[in-house]
Amino acid sequence: MSNIKPFKAVHYNLEKIEDISKVVCPPYDVISEEEQDILHDLSPYNFTHIDLGKDQEGDNDKNNKYTRAKDIFAAWLKEGVMVQDEKEGLYFYKQEYKIQGQKHSRTGFICLMNLQNEEDSKVYPHEKTHAAAVDDRLALYCSLNSALSSIFVCYSDNHRKVEKIFNKHILTTKPMFQVEDNDKVKHTMWRFNDPELIEVIDQSLSGQQLFIADGHHRYKVATEYRKMQMAKKSEVSDDEPFNYVMTYFTNIDSKDLQIFPMHRIIKQMPGDLGFLEKFFRIDKVKNKGELLILLAKAGRNEHAFGMYSAEGIRLLRLKNKSLIDEMVKEGSSEYKNLDATILKHFIFDQIGVKSKEIVYTKDLGVVTDMVDNGEAAVGFVMNAVKISQLKAIALNGEKMPPKTTYFYPKVLSGLTVYKLN
Fold this sequence. Notes:
Helix content is 32%, strand content 24%. With 421 residues, it is α+β, with helices and mostly antiparallel strands.
């Protein structure tokens, strides 16, 4: 059975949409309410009108944000605002960006990934899903009978087979789309229809362990939808559209696969932090720049966090690793040794900080601004999770604590849609 499959993507029609930057958007789950309003107002054709609609007064079973999304999507197709490709293809996708002035470039491709029963699957998630979010996305999936956004999956390509195909056959050709987002990330997409080379790509993924980086809720929705459809049929073929999920693939071995740390902000501390010296070596730090340098250095061999509060900046380093097994009762060694796990058990649990009381952000500036402005009591600055940790925990069948990883850059929504019928 094939791992991947080309498909006829639905996408924006550039003959109708002059500025693609006004209609594409980030993934729904990183859009704030304020950003949702801005994107809705940016264009009547912005993708959030179907991917992240708004609740309205008087909504009911027959008229709600999901039925409105279905009607809007149908209207866009009818008007030619969005069109479906006539030939099946695979869609190469390159993202160029800078981090601290250094240039990076990540290349991947979007196609369909085969879904299998859980016991047969070699697709490994690493984050827990929340029932409310799954219900929301499943309702939208069923209403439109379409996957609006890709899940984000990592595969291994040590021999760079896919990259060589891209460089030889794609890079110098005219792209379908090219757009720069608000973070100055340049997104470029090409359509690729060569069946023989698509087969080479499929074979390079054969038998591999695949790791979900982003889109755990969307993956869960696709698997639940598949179960629903299979329950309705006495016979099911491998080619059924619900046996596939739209997926962005990128190389886990690439140096440009970036994971950002997710920092923790506590608005009100429920207890005193005087106990910290029991578990941690505590060093005063002059400024944010020095903290990042010292934190990264300490993180090579120790469990360390930055602590930013009105009292100043501190570097916390765990004194005794042997305490980890004593303090953390559940999980494998890999799970117990996650910095996020240690922060939870050695600090948050000691004073009663609950997950719902934590603000998560990838931006250190958000941490410092909230504390400086009196909106938060303290921020804990994290090192990024390593790919090796993600793989080990996923292969163990475990899930990381909430908001442990942030893969960057995000895959834009609105570039491709998988219409199941």
